[in-house]
From TrEMBL, chains A, B:
Its EC number is 2.5.1.17. This is Corrinoid adenosyltransferase. The keyword Transferase applies. It comes from Phenylobacterium haematophilum. Belongs to the Cob(I)alamin adenosyltransferase family. Pfam families: CobA_CobO_BtuR. The keyword Nuclease does not apply. Pathway: Cofactor biosynthesis; adenosylcobalamin biosynthesis; adenosylcobalamin from cob(II)yrinate a,c-diamide: step 2/7. GO terms for biological process: cobalamin biosynthetic process; porphyrin-containing compound biosynthetic process. Gene3D superfamilies: P-loop containing nucleotide triphosphate hydrolases (3.40.50.300).
Length: 204, 204
């Protein structure tokens, strides 16, 4: 090994030692706090997909999961077809009546959103569940299908025995204010710009 | 129903009709192009998690998936424990030797990264697979454990019969340049800032 390689390796080791010390210190001072409220928002992809990745992760720990889909009612999706295979562990409720631009019926959308919120509340209060995904709830809030003040109050009154993930673009500031972790998915480059159709396995 | 409600509903219907027309036009003019290269990068959460959500989605379509984990070798993760249950459908290879700040050994990291890339190439050329996840490849590239020019050339020479997802912060510009879809996960609010430990089911 050359002197230059030796030096590079030694430098790397020192840098990694410093990084490890920093990380260890950070992990040591944390307190364990269950029951986080997570929000996935932004115009990019991956908001629902990351929530469905958390479902896989939770299943790996033999946890139980509740999923309420607010909007994507009419699509057949891979995630739905997959997680429906685990009815003992996953309660999967599809409450939305399809995209709002398909239904074009505000009264019906409000009714569907209210039924979905009732089911969500039931899950939030179900001590059996370890994780609850409220998929595309943000869209129902954005169109005022649900009262944000009521949703925020209900979320704040929830038992803190499970994690909750809310997805959808345009998360309301009131929701972000009470969330523990907010991630924004931003589009850097998208194949729709380049004339590529939504694809099975990638988009649904 | 009041006049005001009637008006609001009519307005909503018109807006949704316009949205639907726009979306239908967009979907109609797209061409189907298989074999996308997706990159999940940024400092926020959800990069790997969204990739693992795509695995669930692909399993829902009865597809076959290859996963190479470049870095998180030593952690026991929920996703690993879960997807290992489907050996017929998921080839799950854990090549990383743990976080670099744990190993502090550059030569060993390079060796592990090179072995991981060899396995990745095998998967990229495996016609049985529909989706390949190269989890945390960006970290191996960032530390120059792998030559970016070689990785880019290999990716460009790959058969376009499957989707490929590369995850990890600090994606190199050379990789972004050849990607079809790039999403940046940005941290808006994180519980680590508020003294909360990494948690099972959320972070791993």
């Amino acid at each position: 090994m050359s002197d230059d390689e030796d030096r590079k390796n030694a430098e790397h080791k020192a840098a990694m030692q410093a990084l490890k010390a920093e990380r260890d210190a950070m992990m040591a001072e944390k307190t364990d706090a269950p029951g986080l409220l997570l929000v996935h928002t932004g115009d990019g992809k991956g908001k629902s997909t990351a929530a469905f990745g958390m479902v896989a992760r939770a299943l790996g720990w033999n946890q139980k999961i509740g999923i309420v889909q607010y909007i994507k009612g009419k699509w057949i999706t891979g995630e739905r077809q997959f997680y429906k295979r685990f009815p003992e562990s996953v309660r999967y409720e599809i409450m939305g009546q399809g995209f709002t631009w398909d239904t074009q019926d505000r009264a019906r959308d409000i009714e569907a959103a209210e039924a979905a919120w009732a089911t969500s509340l039931e899950m939030l209060h179900d001590p059996e569940l370890d994780l609850v995904i409220l998929d595309e709830l943000n869209i129902a809030l954005r169109y005022d299908y649900l009262d944000i003040a009521k949703v925020v109050a209900d979320l704040q009154a929830r038992p803190r025995d499970k994690h909750v993930v809310v997805t959808g673009r345009n998360a309301k500031p009131e929701l972000i204010a009470i969330a523990d972790l907010v991630t924004e998915m931003t589009l850097v480059k998208h194949p729709f710009d380049q004339g590529i159709k939504a694809q099975r396995g990638v988009d649904f």
